[in-house]
Model the fold of this input.
Amino acid sequence: MDDRLKTKFILNVVLLLAVALLIYWGQDNLNNFQIRILNLAGIFAILGVSLNLVLGFTGMFSLGHAGFMCIGAYTTAILTMSPRSKEIIYFMEPINPVLANIQWPVLPAIILGGIMAAVFGFLIGFPALRLRDDYLAIATLGFSEIIRIVVTNTITITNGALGLKNIPSIKSLWVYWLATILTILIIKRILNSSWGYAFKAIRDNEIAAEAMGINIFKHKLLSFTIGAFFAGLAGALMAHLITSVDPTMFRFLFTFQILLIVVMGGMGSISGSVVAALIVTIGMEVLRIVEQPMNLFGVLSIPGLPGMRMVIFSILLLLVILFYRQGLMGTREFNWDWLINKLSTFKLRKRGEAA
Amino acid sequence: MQFGGLTAVSELALQVMPGEIIGLIGPNGAGKTTVFNMITGVYTPTRGKIYYKGQDITGMKPDRITSLGIARTFQNIRLFESMSVLENVMISKHVRLKACLAEAVLGLPRYTRSRQAQKEECIELLKKVELEDVINEPAVSLPYGKQRRLEIVRALATSPELLLLDEPAAGMNPNESIELMQFINRIRDEFDITVLMIEHHMEVIMGICERIYVLDYGMTLAQGNPEQIQNNEKVIEAYLGVVDLDA
Done:
């Protein structure tokens, strides 16, 4: 048993090294566009994993992720923009003097973005988490829209509908994927801890969990707040990736894109969410071809239709729901045990053949 | 206890002494499970009070009541389906963990030690009830009788002083019922607890309960030791209906 733990540890290290090597290689050999897509995939992985914590592991149907991203993105944007560009951009109404001359380094700003989102998550969770299932979904969706509308109208802070530009740009694969890997590790550790099991107990059977002494509301709020924190973090990263934010980015359609990732990857599977995030983000770019004018063997010619890839994704989601309801991974996780078992039976068989 | 215009339970004076095994019986719909739900805080009684060890626990939340030392099982088994036998039992220990979430994420010794100690406690507990051979099996893969037993163990893991069992023998054959009776007797002595149980199997009730309460239409119909209950005319009437001798 101990041997197996050691093997697993080594395999984990090897995997991390391999990912690091890939990032190192990618940083030098991929073009800017490809790096940008991979970074976006990392951000979607964070979003997928954090929504999965809330939806797949704690069983709360929350649709507020876009709102929390919005808070994270605006927090880091306002804190890191240079005072000069703030002066230029806020031309409708001047910026609130308290914020005008602040310029933070990027890292603390991003983390504060997560914390701000967590604070809002906590405040929203307080009333909303008394609801369940579809009612909770509607309430969180509403709150997420409220956040967006408030952001649109607090012009002296957020510059309203015009949005913010010239946010310091981060291009490195390292930053985004380090954040992604850290997020996955932290959420994995939470799920494997006593708290993770408490979350799963609430998902499996709320009444029994409560009868075993678990404070349902407190644990739901905890899970919801952690989910909001990572959503905020992802939003902040996205602000630095795109270098501009405006309220329309965070419409509730965005939440559905994250939901697509979670459902496709499997509710209750972290590795599933990561894989699905990569597939969806990269697929979204690759499928741009279908939006170009097409000429099918001279028989059928289709003019360029923007939005065609969403049709393909909708069909994909439909197929997943119809034929593969569990998603890619179901509730299973990527696990070394499988590989080790395969190898050891292979070894045994070889030995058997030799004898 | 009233649900809208329906009075489910009224005029019940139930008293439980330490170390007793008490039976709560009555025809279907008599309000037995409602009594359990009131004691464990699932429902708040519309009138009346519940005292536990001198403390008023009326209207407290279920998790609070569990922490005071009242644990329960459910009529329809409610195990955590995604978890193994051991994990199911360990859920009951979660509130007693002496560490915070940050310590767990960072893997600090206070958490790992506390968690390890709980794990050993739970394994010990599972050994005592002869479930140690299925520790890592998914809870739902167990045969019915063992699932029932696991539910009792899970309740025991919260370190209760009062254990409420809601039809523990439901769906069991006579042999299994006898086994269960011995099991309940044993855990009462071994864990030094009081047991209050709802049951329809009369042989189980009559076999192990020291006192029995009979509930009908939410009211106490009779109470006493098994013999008194068996010979009580009102009880016979409630269960068998009135026999009209003139007809």
User: Anything to note?
Assistant: The first strand of chain B starts at residue 2 and ends at 3.
